[in-house]
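Hi X.,

You mentioned you wanted examples for the new student's onboarding notes, showing what a folding record looks like when two proteins sit in one file. Here is a clean example. The first protein comes first, with its sequence line followed by its structure tokens.
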Amino acid sequence: MSLDPKDLSPLFTHVDVTSNPTPMQQSLQSNETNTLLKRMIELQERQALLLEELLQQQVHTQKQRSAELNAWRKAHPELAEKCRLAAEALSKVHADFLGTLASEVDDTAEDMIDSEYLLSEFVDRFGPRIAHLNGVLQMLAQLGAPAQAMKTNS
């Protein structure tokens, strides 16, 4: 069963692949290229403006958060000191807990690879505690940090 080339003609379009385009074609291609390049520049400039606005918003939010923390520390200096001391103590607990976690992984890694149950048990045992401990430690560290340290981090 052979197909007549006339039956296939609507499926294909003519594409000029000659290496020497006519001056008219060159002019059209040049205009189209220039238009596309101008549009790309416009879009890049818009993107740069949006990124700048986003950055300004983030800086504003960070400055506001820092000011609120500093105001809280000034209003509660003794509590801020207690938070600092608690963060230092909890940091030691955190390090010990991470050591226990690392030892557990070292001892049972091969078994956890082979057993979905052991892996799930490990995650259930250590996951929530380490997540909550990290959150509490971060909060205490932020509340107990000296005002000067917060300004240098901003």
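Then the second protein repeats the pattern, sequence line and then tokens:
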Amino acid sequence: MQQEKLEQAYDKYQSYGYAEDLLPKKPNQRDWGMSNYVTLWMGAVHNIMSYMTVAGFFLLGLNTKQVLLAVMLSAVIVSTFYVLNGYSASKYGLPFAMLLRDSFGVKGSIIPALCRGLIAGIVFFGTTTVVGAESLNVIFARFFPNFMTLGGDFNLLGLTLPTMISYAILWIVTVLLFLGGTSFLGKFGNWSSPVVYVFIIGAAVWAINIAGGFGPIMNYVPQNPNASIFVFIACVSALVSNWAGPVVNMSDFTHRAKTPKDMIIGLPLGFILSYVLFAITCVALIAGTEIAFGEPIFNIVHALDKMDSTFAVVILILALNVGAIAFVVYANLLPSGLQMSALFPKVFTVKSAGILTAIVGTLILPWKLVESANTLFFFYSFIGSIFGPIAGIMLSSFFIHRKRVLNLDNIYVPEGSNGEYKNGYNPVAMIVLGVSFILPMSGAFLKGVPLLVKMNDFAFFSGLIVSFILYTIFSKTLKQSK
């Protein structure tokens, strides 16, 4: 679209009453270059949830070489989907909430937007914050030896008093950083990433040292090894699911790209390079501490707590929490705020929706979801079953059905108009979304059906592939019948 046409379209859509954040970005508003995409997730990669996920790989029986391969393969897959699902926004300048309208319809887009903005934001906020709270317990216990005995046997819905205190502190800090606004978040991200990297590298060096070098770590085999290819794929799927939220709403970042090339090169380059260090640090800390201390460790914080230096423990845990907070704010609270304010502009602002997400994220008792490797992987299968189908439909719609050409007049419609689809819902997308979610998720409950169980193990991939195929077939069939 030429500059003059874009200006005219912008003015027309603005006259319909759309907020500025929802309008397509004009060329002079495209201010993200390649460096922005290279550094986008550099700090957030090193969050405690990701480390716990990789620790789960060892518990499931993968050896060090298999874990390294799984981690790096997931990085390639995630960055590939970042580019694919972010391309349309980089071309047309559309934010996620509006881009969904093309695939699901003006009204139908509400459902996937709620899934990404509210459901995922709630769950990831709660689980990441409670894991961070448990890490703060370690710090407080170093300075106050009786901290973990506070409250005695007091327990509120599975949460002890010490963890309640730590959770409240981290909750407040995270929400305050979110309320600081995007400019403040940008500054936070600029200084937090180098801090995280300095101390994470230090932790890897310590772990390699106590294990007797990198050789023993590379040769490490868990107590119950499992060479099954299905277990390996399930592990890759779980780690991909950890980043499935940003995969779905990557357009909220790429719609500001100066050119598509900036994000096409920048996103994979930054993410994969960040994951190289993440992979090395993960296996060093997890395998290294087990070699040194003789016990498998699921929570990475327990590995760090093995260090004698209180200063080192405090700094490393704080560094990991910086990464976790960046992950929660950028990948969960902010998208939740954007989607909810776009859907219900008269009810929510970005900030009020983000606060609601943080509140409800606590009410769902997130500590129940991360109490073991089994519950954590169940959580990932749920997330993958939601996000895989949404991503598959969006990719099929843009690359196959639309042939990479969008009609913005069907997306930005006057109030009361349903746009391209009757009643505002794309029936194909809605049916495919439901089927593609139910199939993999049912495997978590129907253990007697091997196919469904395997689909649940690979939930993100299963949902994406099924939805992509079904949407492609049904869209073409209906198009030919018209």
